[in-house]
Design brief:
- It comes from Streptomyces violarus.
- GO terms for molecular function: DNA binding; DNA-binding transcription factor activity.
- The protein folds into 2 domains: about 5-65, Winged helix-like DNA-binding domain superfamily/Winged helix DNA-binding domain (Arc Repressor Mutant, subunit A, Orthogonal Bundle), CATH 1.10.10; about 75-210, 2-Layer Sandwich (Beta-Lactamase), CATH 3.30.450.
- It contains 7 helices and 8 strands, in the order αααββααβββαβββα.
- By secondary structure, it is an alpha+beta fold.
- The protein has helices at about 5-20, 30-35, 40-50, 70-75, 75-95, 140-150, 195-210, and strands at about 55, 65, 100-105, 110-115, 130-135, 155-160, 165-175, 180-190.
């Protein structure tokens, strides 16, 4: 802590992070131990957060993340999309294929930003808002690969015809971005995705990750 920071706000944010990292919630005593403060402080923090619907307490008294965080989370997509657009435009123009940024939304992969190339005669139509299961398509599989190997760089994932007949996909996960789970990829009409495309997608994913840090 420094003179410019708020200890109370810091503790409140730490409470939210602790609750976000557990599926079963935490009691006042558990939070008190993890924060290193007495129970009275925790009660006050929880009461304040509960007033703003950022936490809720179940019948057993365990605190969990509240629905109020969804309203905050909805504002993340526009910010992430804006940060990613330069890299997506460059990728789409360079490869001549539709580029996209995909984020996790529950059990689905959700395309939040899409850029189509300007110079091609034809390309795959892919729209922001398109969603599909995480275990289908290059975008979702790249995210799952990063989950399964969190300490390594999984590189890129290639798929063919999993979401649209005749369309190939290449995607690489966003790595090292706290609070954002997603991937950058391209979709194209081709029998085989050239190796250069995969390497270029990895480069674009790194550019987006840098923009979000």
């Amino acid at each position: 802590m420094t003179a410019e920071t708020s200890q109370t706000l810091d503790r409140g944010l730490r409470v939210l992070k602790l609750l976000a990292d557990t599926d079963h919630g935490l009691t006042v005593t558990e939070l008190s131990l993890r924060l290193g403060v007495n129970r009275t402080v925790v009660y006050r923090l929880l009461a304040t957060l509960e007033q703003h619907a950022l936490i809720r307490r179940d019948l057993g008294g365990r605190a969990r993340v509240g629905l109020g965080v969804l309203g905050l989370g909805r504002q993340v997509h526009p910010l992430v999309r804006e940060a990613a657009m330069p890299a997506l435009r460059s990728l789409a123009e360079d490869i001549g294929a539709t580029a996209h940024l995909t984020l996790v939304d529950g059990a689905d992969a959700l395309a939040v930003a899409v850029v189509e190339p300007t110079w091609t005669d034809y390309h795959v139509a892919y729209r922001a808002g398109f969603r599909h299961p995480l275990d289908r398509g290059a975008a979702g599989k790249a995210i799952l690969a990063a989950r399964q190997h969190p300490m390594t760089d999984p590189g890129y994932i290639l798929t063919h015809g999993e979401l649209e007949a005749g369309a190939c996909g290449a995607a690489a996960p966003l790595l090292g971005v706290t609070g954002v789970e997603g991937s950058v990829g391209v979709v194209m009409l081709a029998d085989v995705v050239p190796e250069r495309v995969g390497e270029r997608v990895v480069e674009a994913a790194r550019e987006v990750a840098e923009a979000l840090r």
